[in-house]
Amino acid sequence: MNRWLEKSSWGLVVGCRVFGAHLTAALFPKRCLACRSILTANGINPMCFVCRQSLLPIRVPYCVQCGLPFENQSPEIQRTCGDCTAHPPQFESARSAFVYGEAVRSAVVHLKSAGNVRHARELVMLAQTAGVVPDWSDADAILPIPYFRKRLKQRGFAPTVMIADALAGPWKTKVLNQILFRVKETEPQRGKSAAGRRKNVRGAFEARPDVSGMSVILVDDVMTTGATLDAAAQSLRAAGAKSIRCYTLARALLS
Ligand SMILES: [Zn+2]
Ligand SMILES: [Zn+2]
């Protein structure tokens, strides 16, 4: 091919790519993870300014075990909350990135309905930017909270696996999703009391003995009373897990 032709066809390729990118941006503009408003074309933030401002990252002081934020207390305070004292959970510690406010709720609902891997990565990126992803790179594996087989088939994807995959980078740890299984179909936890939630998920999980001696991190989207994570931790403990920590994108605070 002569040089002029070579140059002009390369220019054509670049031009088509640029045009294609503009067309994609025009047809499918990047939207705020939470309120779905259109974001500026070159912005790196996955959430609009208003939604980002409304996020409440969870920082100390909180319950040293379940991570429940304490109000109006010294950041140095080191104690467990009433629930952890009354019903000590099977996991060593649980931490959440944000209080389950409107923006996080919308983002999580969207992640669970759209199943877009990018959304999970962007939510984890927001948590990292806010400094609320603990350094747990000493763990052996990340275990996403599993779905019941029938529910997973209906949905077609597992949002908890997407969140776990997004955390595998920061924690430099592998995701194992063939260790923990949901063996019982449970009712939705919403609207149940703390005792009702515990009863609902009792015996819902089973773990393979492969986890014996491992230090693991359980990952879920939202933690409310921690009943689901505790039930999963119980099965991991029974299978011989050495240490169990939990991480969720959000923590719903019961009023
Ligand atoms: Zn927004
Ligand atoms: Zn607690």
Which features characterize this protein?
255 residues, five-stranded parallel β-sheet, 9 helices, 7 strands, binds zinc ion
Describe the structure.
The chain has one domain. The mean pLDDT is 91. It is globular and about 75 Å long. Helix content is 40%, strand content 15%. It has a five-stranded parallel β-sheet with strand order 1-7-6-2-3, with helices on both faces. The longest helix has 25 residues, at 3-27. It contains nine helices and seven strands. It is of the alpha/beta class. One zinc ion (ZN) binds next to helix 2.
**Unique ligands:** zinc ion
* Cross-sheet strand order for the largest sheet: 1-7-6-2-3
Kindly report the average pLDDT value: 91
State the end-to-end distance.
73 Å
Shape: globular
Helical fraction equals: 40-55%
How many domain units? 1
Biggest sheet record:
5 strands, parallel
Q: How many strand units?
A: 7
Q: How many separate helices?
A: 9
Compressed to H and E, one letter per element, the order equals HHHEHHEHHEEHEEHE
Structural class: alpha/beta
Concise account of the structure shown:
Helices cover 40% and strands 15% of the residues. The chain has 255 residues and is α/β, with parallel strands linked by helices.
